[in-house]
Amino acid sequence: MPVTARRTALQGAVSQTSEASSSRPTGRTMAKHRKPSKPVAGPRAAAAVLSVGLAVGGGAAISVVSAPQTASAATSKVTATRGYTSIPSRPLLRFRDSGPTVKYVQRALHLGPDGYFGNSTVRILKKYQASWGIAPTGTMTKATWGRLTWTAKRGLLYGKYGTSTTTTSFRAKVLREAARLKGTPYRYGGTTARGFDCSGYTGYVYKKAGKKLPRTSRQQYSVTKHISRKAAKPGDLVFFRSGGGGVYHVGIYAGNNTLWHSSKPGTPVAKGKIWSSNVAFGRV
């Protein structure tokens, strides 16, 4: 056979083999002769992106995308922002916040101001909130900010090292003295342990605890700082008012809608329930 004819036959055979190999076998042929492998999307996709990048950039540069910011880093950023927010904006501080605003809160609560909202700050803040009738969440809520700034201006701050420790100790003395005088007879105009009227009793108890009150219930009302029922604490004074707003009786608040008082002739000093809704509370 001529060489040319053999070459032509050879090229045809190669061409047919190539076409046959390029066509994808199906059905039983595929299952019998070749086991298909699972496509690997990751490397192929990466190769395709790299190829496109090289083709577009001429192989000169490859762009690299940085990893997204982690959740912990984002949390740290928010924490730092809250701790540095201005005080007039009343930021809603919470556990693990830090910054100068946290120091303000700690100074207000008479804590060592380290600027970190830790467990000790949470614990004291809860006590402060409970003392003013606010839900003891341990976080700086709007209600807590309002009360904190109000008490800070008036020197009524709560804390181990603050003035309210003295105030708490004073109220405890008031309650002890009030209970000690249980059974003392009522005496009109009485101001001694031989017998008391209502204001004579409160004046005597407060004097024993360390503070002096004026003689009558109206005068005592005029020198106290008026507070709400919700803010009242055992040891504060509770005043009973007439329809016209005048004060006609006074006692010592004992908590849970009760009071210590010297009520009327024939009834000795005793602890009883507050029977009227028209009352006012005062703190010395």
From TrEMBL:
PANTHER family: MUREIN DD-ENDOPEPTIDASE MEPH-RELATED. Residues 1-42 are annotated as: Disordered. Residues 168-284 form the NlpC/P60 domain. Residues 13-26 have a biased composition (Polar residues). The lineage of its organism: Bacteria, Bacillati, Actinomycetota, Actinomycetes, Propionibacteriales. Keywords: Hydrolase, Protease, Thiol protease. It holds the Pfam family PG_binding_1. Belongs to the peptidase C40 family. This is NlpC/P60 domain-containing protein. Signal peptide: none annotated.
